[in-house]
Specification:
InterPro entries: Aldolase_TIM, TIM_sf, TrioseP_Isoase_bac/euk, Triosephosphate_isomerase, Triosephosphate_isomerase_AS. The structure is a single chain. This protein has 248 residues and is an alpha/beta fold. It is built from eleven helices and eight strands. Strand 3, helix 3 and strand 4 form a beta-alpha-beta unit. The chain is globular and about 45 Å long. The mean pLDDT is 97. Bound molecules: phosphoenolpyruvate.
């Protein structure tokens, strides 16, 4: 049984004060205990949000990290720094980081290994552009991203990794992949994991869909057999909507 996971990616939104207001709104609601709820806040709010969610089942995630433990990398945050705060997850290789900050499959692979070694779980983002989809290359692109991301990662780590399939054309655009297209691509990613590892890892790996997920479409997506959760941007910034997503 794969535990469903709904993760909110707040991106570069919310000061500490706003983050605490949002988390208060979420935590006072009854949240489905069978769903793992994660909030991925900006670095600056991690420590305060960690304090605020104490005693709840809400998990904490960062949105990025460097792979080295320390060093001359001005402006970067190390996995040890995140571990010290007590993060449970870190988003790795989000398309915005690939697009605007030159993140590559190689750095994604290094970051996944580093997160696992440090002791928290990576949420690894993959997904194709509209151009790639229209050229019939979605599977080829996503397969290469998965193979490169998982290079030299042993099969016994698969239970500690979440993949987020996020077609870039559906992020923040209001366009959602149809639930059957999303399920097909998540199934294709699952099959790829089965090819890299074995049937066991194929069944274990948790795969989220991301791209304009909102209260009105979450149920249909979550009913699909290959979709184990959602990575959510816009709708995670409104407490009432995020709670609806967790309680789909
Ligand atoms: C995201 O940022 O990962 C995302 C899926 O954003 P949105 O839900 O706003 O499309």
């Amino acid at each position: 049984m794969r535990t469903p996971i709904i993760a909110g990616n707040w991106k570069m939104n919310n000061t500490i004060k706003e983050a605490l207001e949002l988390i208060e709104e979420i935590k006072i609601q009854n949240l489905n205990e069978n769903v793992e709820a994660v909030v991925c806040t900006p670095f600056t709010a991690l420590k305060d949000v960690k304090e605020a969610i104490k005693g709840t089942d809400i998990k904490l995630g960062a949105q990025n990290m460097h792979w080295e433990e320390s060093g001359a990398y001005t402006g970067e945050i190390s996995p040890m720094m995140l571990k010290e705060i007590g993060v449970d997850y870190c988003i790795i290789g989000h398309s915005e980081r690939r697009q605007y900050f030159n993140e590559t499959d190689e750095t994604v692979n290094k970051k996944i290994k580093s997160a696992l070694e440090t002791g928290f779980l990576p949420i690894v983002c993959v997904g194709e552009t509209l151009e790639e989809r229209e050229a019939g290359k979605a599977e080829e692109i996503v397969k290469a991203q998965v193979i490169n991301a998982f290079k030299d990662i042993p099969g016994n780590k698969i239970a500690d990794i979440v993949i987020a399939y996020e077609p870039i054309w559906a992020i923040g655009t209001g366009k959602t992949a149809s639930s059957s297209d999303a399920d097909d691509m998540c199934g294709f990613i699952r099959k790829t994991i089965g090819e890299i590892y074995s049937e066991n890892e194929k069944e274990i790996i948790r795969i989220q869909y991301g791209g304009s997920v909102k209260p009105s479409n979450v149920k249909e997506l979550m009913e699909k057999s290959n979709i184990d959760g959602a990575l959510v941007g816009g709708a995670s910034l409104k407490g009432t909507d995020f709670v609806k997503l967790i309680n789909f």
